[in-house]
Amino acid sequence: YSAKKSAEHIMFYDSSMSEQAEHRLKLLGELRHAQNLGQFSLYYQPIVKLSDGAVAGAEALLRWQKTPSEMLEASDFVALLEETGLIVSVGNWVLEQACKQAAAWREQHSPDFVISVNVSPMQLEHLDFPMQVEQVLASTQLPPQALMLEITESALLMHPQQARITLAKLRTMGIQVAIDDFGTGFSSLSRLGHMPIDSLKIDGEFARELQHQRGQALCQAIIQLSQALGLHFVAEGIETMQQKEQLLAMGDGLAQGFLFGYPLHAQQFSLTHFHPHIIQRVN
Ligand code: C2E
Ligand code: MG
Ligand code: MG
Ligand code: MG
Known about the structure:
It is a single chain. By secondary structure, the chain is an alpha/beta fold. Helices cover about 55% and strands about 20% of the residues. The chain has helices at about 1-35, 75-85, 85-110, 120-125, 130-140, 155-160, 160-170, 190-195, 205-210, 215-230, 240-250, 265-275, 275-280; strands at about 40-50, 55-65, 70-75, 115-120, 145-150, 175-180, 200, 230-235, 255, 265. Strands 1-2-4-5-6-7-8-9 form an 8-stranded mixed barrel, surrounded by 6 helices. β1 (about 40-50) and β2 form a beta hairpin. It is globular. The site of one magnesium ion (MG) has 4 residues, from loops.
């Protein structure tokens, strides 16, 4: 009886495994056509000053309109884009699109607006990446200081030597560089001190831990580290007023999270953050 039971269990497990594999394969097939079908778009999430909530810029986040009624967030498919190498061409499109939008917003609304763009390790590996960025800046007329490239801590760990050279080139061009998801990848602190970067983006995990004393200690330590290294910080994943107040007491910096704004498509972002009076009148 128990043998039969475990056999059933295995069969059940097997079928759900192959269902998962099938689902993944189907998704991959669809992903390959998504760019040609124009199904990708960018959403923008505000990055604000902790001290007064003023919008300093935004992060561009990739979205996939898979069907008219189904939109996937980056966390659902960016890993697949990376596995297939599609991230290189999609990433290029993201960069160009985001720079174009930022140039328009700087001209129309906010002359100091900074756009943050996520860069995959695979893009960084290409030796001509800095040149590609330079071309995009030239074609979109965006000044280099208005662009912040975000590299995850784990990407830096993979190829630290080459990453350092490429990041140094980008910074020489005047572009800003941030380490994304900081605090989750165990980077060597001695290496961090030598990295040509401008900002640390403190992973949202730390904001969530702010209700515990240990989490407060960790946030305080990371903010002090950023100050000691002469870096700016952006606290990610801020969802409550209390988190905002706690961080502000630790140091003045930037913040991002649902408290200040959800990721929105460009038009909605503009209405919400550049024309708030229009929305007020509608209400
Ligand atoms: P990330 O760069 O750390 O981006 C922040 C993620 O946290 C976004 O998820 C955003 O929607 C979410 N988020 C923002 N505020 C809050 C909050 O207050 N609470 C919570 N719980 N979540 C919040 P998303 O858009 O799904 O992106 C996931 C990751 O995918 C990004 O993490 C980034 O690493 C990657 N990604 C997004 N767009 C691109 C892209 O164009 N290229 C590459 N290479 N990676 C991208
Ligand atoms: Mg990011
Ligand atoms: Mg991040
Ligand atoms: Mg994160």
